[in-house]
């Protein structure tokens, strides 16, 4: 796994051993960032269920202003720290807690890009979206990017609506924005 574009292009990222963490494949990551192209520069990024930090670090490489990475697994936290240090990134903040606890305790923070990539088939993405909705944590021009299994469905929750989806093998990417 590597950073595929921007300032840190080509930097290799460490991954968590085993099958508990499922990093977003480069092909899917490339597709996501092609959709987000206009939204990245200067963005505040929230990466829930961060895993290796892959998505947040890619956003920083492409010009995001700062990223907050949320991860509860001690093993994954260690890998994220190593990836941040290896790349020399200074505008990434790792928060070592459960994603839902973070959302419940930090209602004042608002972001331009929010990545949600939880373990599949557990209803965690929908739970995170509901918590992001009240109070709303997404800027008016922001995007929530959700990764699920292809056979999972998401509902829209006010003030968000599903604007676009994409399927890549057994993975589905959802793009949500605030209703106009």
What is shown here, in short?
This protein is α/β, with parallel strands linked by helices. The protein has a single domain (about 25-180), classed as Vaccinia Virus protein VP39 (Rossmann fold).
Keywords:
7-stranded mixed sheet, 180 residues, 5 helices, SAM-dependent_MTases_sf, 7 strands, 27% strand, alpha/beta, globular, 27% helix, Rossmann fold
What does this protein look like?
By secondary structure, the protein is an alpha/beta fold. It has a single domain (26-178), classed as 3-Layer(aba) Sandwich (Rossmann fold), CATH 3.40.50.150. The chain has five helices and seven strands. The protein has helices spanning 26-35, 54-61, 74-87, 99-105, 124-133, and strands at residues 44-48, 66-70, 92-95, 111-116, 138-149, 160-168, 171-178. It has a seven-stranded mixed β-sheet, sandwiched between helices. Helix 5 links the parallel strand 4 (111-116) and strand 5. The radius of gyration is 15 Å and the shape is globular. The relative contact order is 0.16. The model has no long low-confidence stretch (mean pLDDT 93). GO terms for molecular function: methyltransferase activity; nucleic acid binding. Pfam families: Cons_hypoth95. Keywords: Methyltransferase, Transferase.
What ranges have pLDDT less than 50 throughout 5 or more consecutive residues? none
What is the radius of gyration computed over CA atoms, rounded to a whole number of angstroms?
A: 15 Å
- Record the strand order, biggest sheet: 3-2-1-4-5-7-6
What is the annotated CATH architecture? 3-Layer(aba) Sandwich
- The CATH class label is Alpha Beta
- Helix proportion of residues, in percent? 25-40%
By CATH, the topology is: Rossmann fold
Strand residue content: 25-35%
Organism: Desulfitobacterium dehalogenans (strain ATCC 51507 / DSM 9161 / JW/IU-DC1)
GO molecular function: methyltransferase activity; nucleic acid binding
GO biological process, one term: rRNA methylation
Protein name: RNA methyltransferase, RsmD family
């Amino acid at each position: 796994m590597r950073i595929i574009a921007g300032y840190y292009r080509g930097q290799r990222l460490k991954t968590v051993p085993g099958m508990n963490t499922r990093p977003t494949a480069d092909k899917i990551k490339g597709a996501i960032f092609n959709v987000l192209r206009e939204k990245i520069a200067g963005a505040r990024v929230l990466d829930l269920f961060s895993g290796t930090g892959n998505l947040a670090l890619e956003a920083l490489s492409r010009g995001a202003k700062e990223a907050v990475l949320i991860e509860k697994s001690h093993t994954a936290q260690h890998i994220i720290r190593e990836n941040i240090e290896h790349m020399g990134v200074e505008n990434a903040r790792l928060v070592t807690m459960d994603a839902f606890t973070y959302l419940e305790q930090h209602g004042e923070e608002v972001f331009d890009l929010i990545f949600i990539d939880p373990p599949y088939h557990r209803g965690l993405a929908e739970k995170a979206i509901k918590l992001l909705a009240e109070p709303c944590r997404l800027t008016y021009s922001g995007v929530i990017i959700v990764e699920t299994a292809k056979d999972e469905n998401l509902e829209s929750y006010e003030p968000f609506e599903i604007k676009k989806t994409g399927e890549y093998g057994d993975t589905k990417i959802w793009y949500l924005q605030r209703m106009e």
